[in-house]
Each structure stands twice: as C-alpha cells, then as structure tokens.
Amino acid sequence: MDLSILIPAYNQSCLRLVRSLQQQCRASGAGFEIVVADDGSTDEAARRENAQAGELEGCRALMQPQNRGRAAMRNLLVGESRGDYLLFIDSDARLIRPDFIATYLAELPTRAVVCGGIVHADQLPAPGVSLRWRYEKTCEPLFTARRRSMHPYQCLRTFNIMLPREVALAHPFDERVRHYGYEDTLLGRELEQAAIEVRHIDNPMLNHDLEDNATFLEKTRESMRTLLSAEAQMQGYSSLLRTYRRLSRLCLTRPLAALYRLGHKWAERNLLGTHPCIRLLQLYKLCYYCEIKRQA
After folding, report:
1. Torsion (CA) 117, 122, 126, 128 in degrees, nearest 10
2. How far is CA 12 from CA 1, 36, 157, 175, 201, in A?
3. Contact, 1 vs 29, CB < 8 A?
4. What is the distance between the alpha carbons of residues 290 and 296, in angstroms, rounded to a whole number?
5. How far apart are CA 284 and CA 256, in angstroms?
6. CA distances from 46 to 41, 92, 250 (A)
7. HSE-up of 31 (CA within 13 Å, CB side)?
8. How much is the average pLDDT of 68-86?
9. Which residue from 90, 88, 92, 94 is spatially nearest to 206, judged by alpha carbons?
10. Residue 179 has what pLDDT?
11. Which residue, 129, 114, 87, is CA-closest to 3?
C-alpha cells in the first residue's frame, strides 16, 4: 500500500474531509487507506460522524473511549497504519487543491519528511475568531515553502505532513507532552538530530475551523506552560526562549513578569475584542512566560 492518511480528531467531525480525500485517492490510482482516530470526543455529533467516516470504502475509524492526548493519538495511528508513507492531516483541515494527493505522490519514493503547509481564509470568517485569524494571517507570509525551507526543522507543522513509515516508527511523538503546543517543534528537533531530511513544498491545506478568541488565548497560555516544561529540549528551537535569554542577561525578565501582573487584564480586553493587536499578543506571551518562569 502506498499511502496511509491519518486523521486525529477531537470534538471535530472529519467526515467531509475524509470524503474529499477518498475521492482524490481513488482518482490517483494509488493504494491508500484513511484512518480516523477519535480521541474520546465529548461532542456526540462529531463522534457519530467520525465513526461514519470509518464505514466508507478504504477507511477505518478508531474510536477511543476517553481522551489520551495529541501525541498518544498520533502514535496510535502510526502503529495502526499499513502504508509505506503516512500523511498526517488535522481534522479541521480542508482541501483547496484538486491535485493535493497527486502532489504528495509525486514526491515518492523518498526518505524525507515532506511538509505541505497551511493557509487561512483571506476574509475574517467571524468576529469571534479575530485573534487566531489575525495571528495566522500575520505569520502566513513567513511560512511559504521557500521561507520554511530556510529553517526546515523549526518550521515543521504536523497539520499537513507526510513521513515514511519507518521514520514515524523510529521517531514517535513525545507523549509526555499532553497539552497544547510545541509537539511539532520537538519532532523537528528529533529529526534534525537524526539527520533526517525535512522537505517543504507548496501543497497547503486550509485551516477552516478557528478557535474563538477566549479559547485561543487560553491555548496560547497553555503553549507557554508547555514550553516551560520542555525548556531544556527547546533550546535553539524557540524564538521566545532566545528573547527570554537576552532579556535575562539584561535583568529585564522580572520587570516583564511584573508588567504581566499589572497589565494582563487590560491586554486581554484588547485581545478578546474584535480588533486585537498581534504585537500586543507577542508581548503578552513573553510577559506571561516571564511570570510563570518566575513562579517555577
């Protein structure tokens, strides 16, 4: 079998995505399977549709009774896969290219990890998701295939990525990271240390289901806590840690921690509004990291 498409899902229906992928796979003539792993979704409608996706031809669904975490679900999917190459796709992705599968198949055979990329809608989908949308659209020019290729391991994202099965088996996701943030970067670090090529191509998918502002802000704080817990492994792979070290040498981290304590509620009013400032979000992240580092 050429390709296993692996979709971890939690409280998100991927039935439409699976049908679109199935259609392109059939047209390609390649051997394929699509495996959905529902990580104990509490949204009954999403869970029901994810189970239905597993009933389609060439598809399977692994329905977990309880939530196991992002890394554990990806490792489960690797173990259950049958293809020579594994294409990970997040459940909130949407196809935007009619040759998406064909473009990945054109890379075969390969020993490299291949990253396709991610894009977002040109127009704000809804006022309530303005923070995540503005953040992603600000970063998007920095994540073209050409720009990603300048720092291939630091720019790895598992939203849309193909790995040879033997690479995925030899380099599993770190299951100690149970919370949001930096699992992609930790995998990139491990691949670099193993001298495995990471190739970036222009084959993006659309991230269509953005979190509301409050959820994204909480996930941002959660990612900072994840970064703190993995600080030793993340040295050299995080721009925020590089900034923190420079500020520490200048004895500025404690003033920034104090700035978080004094001003975070004011900042959050802006970030949770309809016109959030992304520069303020970057400062907020840094100040929050300084504060939780001070408390550690």
Report:
1. 60
2. 28, 11, 19, 21, 27
3. no
4. 10
5. 9
6. 7, 12, 50
7. 7
8. 93
9. 94
10. 61
11. 87
Specify whether the CB–CB gap between 203 and 160 falls below 8 A: yes
Sign of CA dihedral 137, 141, 145, 148: negative
- Between the alpha carbon of residue 11 and those of residues 114, 116, 182, 215, 283, the distances in Å are 27, 24, 21, 14, 31
| Token pair 């900034």: residue | 243
Identify whether the C-beta of residue 183 lies closer than 8 Å to the C-beta of residue 99: no
Ramachandran area for residue 126 (φ above 0: left; ψ -120 to 50: alpha; else beta): beta
CA distances from residue 255 to 222, 241, 282 in whole angstroms, order as listed: 22, 17, 16
Q: Measure the CA–CA gap between 158 and 116, rounded to whole angstroms.
A: 9
- Give me the chain's average pLDDT, please: 94
Angle of helix 239-249 versus helix 278-295 axis, rounded to 10: 60
For CA atoms 69, 70, 75, 78, the dihedral sign is positive
Tell me the one-letter amino acid at 199: R
Q: Which of 42, 109, 40, 37 is nearest to 79 (CA)?
A: 37
What digits encode the pLDDT tens for the residues 119-149? 999 999 999 999 999 999 999 998 999 999 9
pLDDT tens digits, one per residue of 10-63: 999 999 999 999 999 999 999 999 999 999 999 999 999 999 999 999 999 999
Provide the 8-state DSSP code for 224.
H
* Contact (Cβ atoms closer than 8 angstroms) between residue 92 and residue 215: no
Cα R_g (the chain), whole angstroms = 20
The sign of the dihedral angle between the CA atoms of 104, 106, 109, 111 is negative
Report the alpha-carbon distance of residue 96 to residue 63 in Å, rounded. Answer: 28
CA distance linking residue 152 with residue 145, whole number of Å: 9
Cα(265)–Cα(63) distance, rounded to whole angstroms?
Answer: 40
